[in-house]
Amino acid sequence: MTHLYEQLKAYEGRAAATSGVGKDLVNEPMIRHWCEAMGDTSPAYEGPQATAPPTMLQAWTMGGLSGHTDRSGAYDELFGLLDGAGYTSVVATDCEQEYLRPLRVGDRVTYDAVIESVSERKTTKLGTGHFVTTRMDVRADGELAGTHRFRILKYAPAAAKPKGNRPRPVINRDNAGFWDGVAEHKLLIQRCEGCRSLRFPWLPGCNECGSQEWDTVESSGAGTVYSYVVMHHPPFPAFDPPYAVGLIELAEGVRMVSNVVGVPPDKVRIGMPVELEFLRVDKELELPVFSALPGGEG
Ligand code: ZN
Hints:
Strand content: 35-45%
Structural class: mainly beta
Order of helices and strands: HEHHEEEEEHEEEEEEEE
Largest sheet: 6 strands, antiparallel
Shape: elongated
Mean pLDDT: 92
Number of domains: 2
Distance between the termini: 59 Å
CATH architecture of the largest domain: Roll
Bound molecules: zinc ion
Low-confidence stretches: none
Helix content: 10-25%
Oligomer: single chain
């Protein structure tokens, strides 16, 4: 057991908030807003005889923007110790509630909170740190109405992992011709030899006439953004968000998914003209991407 852990353990059982008072009585407007946000249409939560949805328990104790003044020093001290040891990040991990009595319109909410436990040092995907569990006892007009147990992890973020490689394309006999084209800086579109229709992505047969005979045409590389998304989350190791993923309509009429480059992602617009270029991603991989043409951004 480390010296730090002994210090942290000493906070177990100490008050995190004492004699807290909810800023508002239990009231219809807050219940209505909650129910609208949650999509809960139960009649039990309507009208002057309404009870509050049980899961609102914590809402009545929250300080809002202006905060509370009743927070005890112990919680801040504990956070200070963890910060000082390098566990500077915080994430809420889970919450458990127990309901003992309904909260009704007009109830005055009071509460006390206690630091229930501080875990040993744990390593998670996010990083290494300590879990801190706080229990809040919520009272309505002096009577225990429920408990709210809340756990956070105070942690030191894991060191950034080395950047991974961009995923490799899966190349098989049905699409090898496309990648052979990319190697020669050509964007090849399949053309059915039966009905002459163009298709993309590459497929063994024609969706229009069923023919398995095909040749290719080389795209001029001109296109427009038919649709797009800007990726912020989730992060993937080989990608640097934010970045734009576009559905590009080629001048030949087929559409393909690729990155839109050469313009900040928030400037990409539907209908924006783009042109093909080849992006060298790493030693083995080049990809066809689309660069915004000057003046096309929104
Ligand atoms: Zn065909």
